Amino acid sequence: MAVTILAIESSCDDTSVAVIRDGYVLSNLIANQEVHMSYGGVVPELASRAHQANIVPVTHQALLKAGIKAEEINAVAFTRGPGLLGSLLVGTSFAKGFALAQNIPLIEVNHLQAHVLAHFILEKDKINRLPAFPFLCLLVSGGHTRIIIMKSQLEMEVIGNTIDDAAGEAFDKCGKVMGFTYPAGPLIDKLAKEGNILAFRFAKPRINGLDFSFSGLKTSFLYFLRDKLKEDPEFIENNKADLCASLQHTIVSILLAKVITASHQTGITEIGIAGGVSANSGLRNEMKKEADKRNWNLFIPEFRFTTDNAAMIGITGYYKYLRGEFSSHDIIPLARY
Fold first, then answer.
1. Measured in Å, how far apart are the chain's first and last C-alpha atoms?
2. 3-class DSSP state for residue 73?
3. Which helix (DSSP H) or strand (DSSP E) does residue 265 occupy?
């Protein structure tokens, strides 16, 4: 008998709904919120209101695209956290209501775990490569930077974490200093392709072990621009591509160094990247070069599965369904999970 999961993702500013059947994604729709661009970051109250407006029509369209009726759904998976509490409340409440109406199980999902599980999303009419275990994954997003060992789909061990800011924050906050709109990461990636990665040098943290730190890099970048702008008020405008290329190169090199160390220490050569920053072309290209040089078996999700999306919630919910890991209806969302 087929197992069909309706998945809800509402951890931040994107409302996403997906339908997963036996591990295959049948639909994965996302409603973006452009209202935050002019504020330099996500405004929680605006995000939760937009989720309220989007959740019903996006679910309706996801079911239509999948060709699935509500009564065919076996369980509802939803993001419990981490994320913005107001946004999570919308998704959690909707998931509870749908599950109660259909008398089906409710499955809570950790948003970060789901990013890693994106490697196991299956697509029809495609060659689906799946990692073998143990699997080493670099999780890089706006709020988190971690190195994780996956021992099975639902058994993970964090062996490296950020002690302050995440890689995605470094991209966005440095981009804000340059006057870029939020999110700055994609624009930095685009401009970096036209610049010289060695044009400028920025501080790299010296953190023992497999942990990360990006606060020093942000400070170095800020002070560098402050001094240069005193000499030339048009410095940023005249050096945008080189600034972006040098900044991106620095962040990517920090990430790569830790992955190489982790692979060496653990002996694991099944390597992957996940999270929103894994869409960065500089990181993808450098990971591919290292994989060729070190004989890694590299896994990089499709672009549409790297940013926040419900398909990754659905695949995690699918594996939890197979293990009978269901949630009660008195469950509450968690901003920190």
1. 33
2. coil
3. helix 240-266
Q: How confident is the model over 80-131, as pLDDT tens digits?
A: 999 999 999 999 999 999 999 999 999 999 999 999 999 999 999 888 999 9
CA distance 83 to 75: 22
Reply yes or no: is the peptide bond before residue 57 cis, omega within 30 of 0: no
**Residue 14 binned pLDDT confidence (cut-offs 50, 70, 90):** confident
**Four-residue CA torsion sign, 105, 274, 35, 173:** positive
CA-CA distances (angstroms) from residue 16 to 27, 193, 227, 306? 10, 30, 43, 13
Q: Which of 67, 55, 65 is nearest to 97 (CA)?
A: 55
How far is the CA of 71 from the CAs of 102, 117, 315, in angstroms? 7, 26, 20
Q: What are the structure tokens assigned to 21, written together?
A: 């059947």
Query: pLDDT tens digits for 72-82?
Result: 999 999 999 99
117-137 CB burial, b ≥16 within 10 A, e <16? bbbbbeeeeeeeeebeebbbb
- Residue 36 pLDDT > 50, yes or no? no
Give me the DSSP letters along 207-232: -STT-B--HHHHHHHHHHHHHHHHH-
All domains of the chain, ordered by start, with CATH?
4-121+306-322 (3.30.420.40), 135-300 (3.30.420.40)
On whether the CB atoms of residues 315 and 121 are closer than 8 A, the answer is yes
β-sheet bridge partners, residue 196: none
Asked if residues 252 and 286 have their Cβ atoms less than 8 Å apart, the reply is yes
Q: Answer yes or no: pTM beyond 0.85.
A: yes
| pLDDT above 70 (res 42) | no
